[in-house]
Q: What sequence folds into this?
């Protein structure tokens, strides 16, 4: 086991000779006397001369730590802020985690390994990241990081990834069921046959064509469909709404099917569109 000198051993106010595991060998009043003993012991035991212990180098690094990203830090509160403050305190005193003398494993993942980056869970949204000369750096972990990488010590304001998830939900696609497509196809023919009435809108015509073509619709369209059915439920009571009735199909029935008909109402009511 190698020997070192250090100025940061808790049981020695000045300089000390320590083993590699930081076990105290002897206390000294000067760096020179500590170094002389360290060299003598190393030669006697025929081990490589160690120099200053890595913890001392880490202490120097600690004094060079950048501040956290303030625009992200101010969004923290409660236990999240307390945890970040505690981590800043540890890093400020001992240096970054996963450094040469740190046993803390951060588990950094590259962008290719990070499966959560699309949810906003990434280094670029962590309070400990900062940019310097066009490069991404980290104040907490001794690692070469990238914006879309991630480690298990990342501290990300909840609203950052919650907002990202909300945006992704808004962009989500919903596959049009066969029953909805069939109703819209029926409406397209009725519209072509002049059954839609004078008050039929271009929006209804476009929606019928869209749904008849199949494929998927966005969350926004699904929300509009659900809203339409909620507003026009009373149209079902009008004469000509049901097959076999006089004046079937009524303009209300044409519009109803243009938005997907009964199948569309059932489908959109089952979708989680209210959050």
A:
């Amino acid at each position: 086991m190698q020997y070192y000198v250090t100025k940061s051993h808790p049981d020695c106010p000045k300089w000390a000779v320590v083993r590699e595991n930081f076990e105290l060998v002897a206390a000294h009043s000067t760096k020179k006397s500590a170094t002389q003993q360290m060299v003598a012991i190393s030669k006697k035991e025929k081990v490589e001369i160690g120099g200053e212990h890595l913890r001392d180098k880490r202490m120097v690094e600690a004094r060079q730590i950048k501040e956290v990203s303030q625009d992200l830090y101010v969004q923290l509160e409660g236990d999240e802020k307390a945890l970040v403050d505690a981590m800043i305190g540890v890093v400020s005193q001992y240096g970054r985690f996963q450094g040469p003398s740190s046993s803390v494993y951060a588990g950094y993942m590259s962008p290719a390994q990070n499966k959560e980056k699309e949810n906003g869970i990434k280094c670029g949204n962590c309070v400990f990241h900062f940019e310097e000369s066009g490069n991404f750096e980290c104040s907490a972990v001794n690692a070469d990081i990238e914006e879309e990488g991630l480690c298990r010590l990342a501290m990300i304001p909840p609203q950052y990834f919650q907002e990202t998830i909300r945006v992704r939900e808004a962009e989500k696609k919903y596959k049009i069921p066969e029953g909805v497509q069939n109703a819209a196809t029926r409406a397209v023919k009725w519209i072509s046959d002049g059954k839609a009435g004078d008050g039929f809108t271009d929006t209804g015509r476009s929606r019928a064509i869209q749904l008849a073509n199949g494929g998927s619709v966005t969350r926004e369209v699904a929300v509009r469909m659900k809203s339409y059915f909620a507003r026009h439920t009373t149209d079902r009571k009008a004469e000509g709404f049901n097959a076999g009735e006089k004046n079937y199909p009524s303009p209300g029935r044409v519009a109803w099917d243009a938005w997907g008909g009964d199948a569309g109402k059932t489908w959109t009511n089952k979708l989680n569109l209210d959050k």
